[in-house]
Amino acid sequence: MRILVVSRSVVGSRMSAPGIRAFHMAQILAEQVEGATVTLAIPEGSDLTAAEAATFGYSVYRYDRRSWARLIRNHDLLISLGFPPMAIPFSQRRLLIVDLFSNFAMEWMEAGKSQRNRRRRFAWYEAQRRYLNLQLTLADFVICNNERQRETWLGFLSSLGLISAAVYDRDRSLRRLVAVCPHGIRSDPLPDRRHSLDELAPGIGSGDRVLIWNGGIIDWYDPLTAIRAMAVLSRQRPEVKLLFVGSRYPDPGFADNSPTFQAAQALSRELGLYNRTVFFKYGWVPYEAMKSYLLGSCAGLSTYYDNAETHSSYRTRFVDLFWAELPLICTRGDILAEMVERRPLGLTVPEKNVDAVVAAVKRLLDDEQFYDRCRANLHQLKGEMGWEQTLQPLVAFCRDPRPIARSKPERLIPALGRAAGYLVWRVLARVMP
Amino acid sequence: MKRILILCKSAVGTAMSSPGIRATNMARVLAHALPESTLTLGVDGPCDLPPQPRYAVRPLSGDQVRALIRQNDVVISQGFPSRALASSFGRTLILDFFTNFMIEGLEYRAQRIAAAQRESWLESQRRYLNLQLTLADYVICANERQRDTWLGMMSSLGLITGDVYDRDPTLRSLVAVCPYGVRATAPLRRHRVLKGVYPGIGANDRLLLWNGGILRYYDPESLIHAFRALLPANPDLKLLFLGNRYPVVGFDIGDTLGKAIGLARALGLEGQSIFFNDGWLPFEDSGDAMLEADLGVSTYYDTLETHLSYRTRLVDFIWAGLPFVCTRGDLIAEQVQHEGLGLTVTERDVAGLTAALHRLLNDEALRASCRAALESARERMTWERQMAPLVDLLRRNAPVAQSKSMRGPMALLRTAQYLNARTRESGQQRLRNASFSVLSSSRLPPPG
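^ inputs. structure came back:
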């Protein structure tokens, strides 16, 4: 069987979460699905070489928008975040797995806020919604990042008429239609030595205790609450610093300086914290280099809003903290924050609450017993959340690919209709005055 | 001043199943919390509820439902009657979708309906759900998982636009969670209803209680096998299945009950130590029954239906403070694990179930800690607290859903799609009936 994993995001030395996910997926499938040849399709800008890929047991293919027909014809099973409408005629005898690792319907709500023109925003969102409806219609199997996303996709599927009685009877749990494959923890061992950050981030002293914000400052995060908390802490605990690492995304199309990012900088200057208590590491920090920053910090900090986007999100930046066994402080609302609270792996705070962040930082840094307990729990968690464990539902499907979804002929007409709707709204979103 | 109508789709009064219990408690809580409003409970089914001081009770038969809807400003509906669709115009519509009707429907209709008919039934259900969600100004449901599926359906249907999201980025004012609750006070021991009263159950026996109907998607079989394994070590143990009939008219419960009775009979236990209560226990007596029982139990399968469900029979155990054993898979089972309300088991695991039942029957320390945890769970789960988000929505009266005019064209399209699907469904039904009569008149065996 010829398996193709399509990454919609760059793969190589600079990777964000979707690229990391595809990278591990290709590797695990190559290792665990006997008799399969695995290819990883990577977009422009990726620097993963064929030789590197060969050491992981798969090959690479550089694709662009014109390659789809060839890609589909040359493979039996394809895994991607999405397939273009022109894939429909070529994919009738192929298995399509759609990897919906985020609740895009909600993410786009946040992303669309930057669009000032209301009508254009509406049309753009209509196009995106129809794109999702199309992907779910094409999918023979859907994977996602957590249970809440799974419930959302089941809702989509049922309103689209894709869960028939026959589908339900084939598997009454519907786990063979929509499965959860969370973002895993990288497998490389944790070095014994803790790094010192003074070389990486000038201004931070060797005796400082650093809170790390690892990941982009995206518009729907709330760095301002964290910075205000640092203003309080700087008077009481001058050794506590906050370091923002990775201010932009490696993929073209992501703005270098989002409004939230600029607001974060402006506020830290205004409060006199800039480069004294609050530090920014500009530009994208590669996957490998992020390790040193993580290992030099003593806890993670991430604040955002308790909204519908957060509710179904899966914050992959937390998974990097898990790898580094760094206890973390995060806002409540998402499923990982629930885990942080329950195990515990750190502390959670209500949204927009500066005092709660201050109290949480003090508790985490002062209560050594609690801190050590969180670290021990994180160490244990790593044994359960490696990619080889989290991708098991996908591996099982690829080993025995018998989809339970409605048959391809039953889905063809709805798929064509939804593709047409998508294309129309995509055009409207561009020409809307 | 607002006129609020609650539409209940099943019986209300002495024999109530969960929709009836939910609707009456909702009426009670809303009448108390919104004294400036008038409240009416419309009942589509048998009703022997005595007159209530704070709200009116009306039957929903025939044309009455349309008139009733027109007399009110807000309609809270467990499933809007399709014959009254036109009268919903201009009213605030709140859907009380406390269960996933499609998945539940797939379960209870699975056995007795021909495959093609089941698909067309499902298709018209789907179209009708899509239409109702398009008409809704608010949706309430029973747990977070249901909420995520309703939000998924609404996203897919284009009902969550940027404007909706901007008005409330949590979307809690569009789809709120109002779980099934418990009465504020624990049941009072009034009189004996089972031990020493029910034929075959002695006053000093220990009693294992199954409190609810045996619907298709339940698993009494594993329980009966586990019970047999328990008997040698616990000879004074009895198992009672309450509620073999279901008080919803026309509700097809499948043949799981028949099979369970058959199994108990084959093992020689039926009428000796396993009892099937024929008929539905009066609502008034269910508290006494749970107080007399030593342990509650409920077993089912770990299906999608279970995953999304909020089993009211388990909530009843919490109300009565009765420790219980249940199958894992739903959110209450998670609560049982986290809060220590009882024990949970894997589906179909007879050995695991036997061990769990034995432990919870005989480990006094564990029973005491479960009872303490149940007590605190009950205080958190009163109807007043569970309905608070609904009260809040009604008080604020600021729907975040898309404006009615924006939804108009979508509603028209979806009405047409629904009518089309329903015509096909009833066409198929007629065809089946016709072929059945032809076949039976020619003395051939009936189909299916």
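The mean pLDDT of chain A is 92. Chain A has 18 helices and 13 strands.
thumbs up if we can close this ticket
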